[in-house]
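Audit log entry. Action: structure prediction of a protein-small molecule complex. Ligand: zinc ion. The ligand was supplied as SMILES and no pocket hint was given, so placement is left entirely to the predictor. Protonation state taken as written. Sequence taken verbatim from the request; no trimming, no tag removal. Recorded inputs:
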Amino acid sequence: MKQRFSAFTLLRNGLSWHENWQRQWRSPDPKPAYDVVIVGGGGHGLATAYYLAKEHGITNVAVLEKGWLGGGNTGRNTTIVRSNYLWDESAALYEHSLKLWEGLSADLNYNVMLSQRGVMNLAHNLGDVREAQRRVHANRLNGVDAEWLDTAGVKEFCPIINTSPDVRYPVLGATLQRRGGTARHDAVAWGYARGADARGVDIIQNCEVTGFDIEGGAIVGVQTTRGAIRTSKVGVVAAGHNSVLAAKAGIRLPLQSHPLQALVSEPIKPVHDCVVMSNTVHVYVSQSDKGELVMGAGIDGYNSYAQRGSFHIIEHQMAACLELFPIFSRLRMLRTWGGIVDVCPDASPLLTKTPVAGLFINGGWGTGGFKATPGSGHVFAHTIARDEPHPLAAPFSLDRFTTGALIDEHGAAAVAH
Amino acid sequence: MLLISCPHCGPCDETEFHCGGEAHVARPHDPAALDDAAWGAFIFMRNNPKGQFNERWVHAAGCRRWFNMVRDTVTHRILAVYPMGSRPPAGLGHLGAAVVEDAQ
Ligand SMILES: Cc1cc2nc3c(=O)[nH]c(=O)nc-3n(C[C@H](O)[C@H](O)[C@H](O)COP(=O)(O)OP(=O)(O)OC[C@H]3O[C@@H](n4cnc5c(N)ncnc54)[C@H](O)[C@@H]3O)c2cc1C
Ligand SMILES: [Zn+2]
């Protein structure tokens, strides 16, 4: 029986010098066969396993991770959570996810530190203003909370922003999603891992999937660095590496892998209690609970699997940051890092069956999939369990690149993650 | 930051260039003859190799001319720079399912 977290267990373990906490999940050796194998132990893969067990009663499941849990983009992202996407299909999917976020700490009995501090997307020119107002209206029609703030409203919500009309890109207003905010990235991976493990899922780290066994057009197993595993259902959830894996099954995906960088400052006292994003000047900024300013912007333009990018991208976003927040000019930056994000041509994800029976792919979340972690896992588990797409996942199938039914979210997803 | 040798201007900072994605993707000769899947593949499907990649760059803030490169997507090492319309140096890159246009 898994130890539950509560004020009481915290107190009791405090009395024994915190030496008696249990491990949060087992580290079993891989079994020869599973009902479902999930490739990739990031948030999305772990959430998929959790909901397979919890909602569909499928517990003979392995999550295979080539490194450590959450060592991919889940542990490298800037943790912005929101659901204010333009099109109906995306709004439905991301709002489903946000609703799951709102109950997640209680569901998992694990504090994912969701902080609904409000997310502002700034407008700096007439085109931005029109696009932003259109998005506010579209969001409201879809039941997603959204407000339009004028310049004075922006200043009131975030007093440290420079709203002078004399700057190169003046702030003309912003959209605000008050239910948006941030969450603790590692906790999401760990909470789902713990929940899945408690329901019988085997979480196997340091186990890379190197190939697929396919017979008569159907999956019969996977090859790994820890031996072959038989299974009839595989969910590939390997952000950045989905095309590499799909190629091993003979499938081409419309994905390109790029570095996405971020950085944090030295920790300072609380000064910035919301999330500010600007597609036009190309930066977004929030402050972590530790006090660091967390910043990021867009991808590097070239393809890469190196988990690092070019320094001029960092310089550019720092310039944009100082344009908006002159108050940060004396701050020192502590570290930068990169993750590899795979991006679809329409900036929307793939949640899809494939031409190989029993092989499912969840990827292409690009620069903005952290916010989707619970929803993605939830609808992908359904898709795998029933062998048919969850209604919210159906529009995100691979065949939209044949039918032309794209879901163009460049406006909502380009710099704003 | 990459140091890229433009075939016309010599080595320059990456900031002067713009990456144009996969090289050697030729427009089909008779688009109307393609079915939706083949047309979709031409528009949207690109190789995304972990390793050597054939790609196009333009020296946007220099001579403004396009050229091809083979670059390793893991080490970022540039292995070859070669002109538009020509094939990559022997043994470099993977053309995969991309269509190679012959120099004309
Ligand atoms: C710098 C940065 C900032 C970001 N900011 C935001 C943000 O603010 N908000 C937001 O919503 N999103 C953001 N994102 C995007 C977000 O991080 C991702 O979309 C999301 O975390 C993807 O989760 P995942 O579980 O699919 O991927 P990952 O966490 O990357 O998990 C995939 C896992 O697959 C494993 N894997 C790969 N190949 C194999 C193999 N062959 N065998 C076994 N395992 C394998 C990897 O090791 C990895 O752990 C950001 C991303 C980056 C890089
Ligand atoms: Zn040049």
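Audit: result stored. Residues B 6, 8-9, 59, 62-63, 65 surround zinc ion (ligand 2) (CB under 6 Å). The radius of gyration of chain A is 21 Å.
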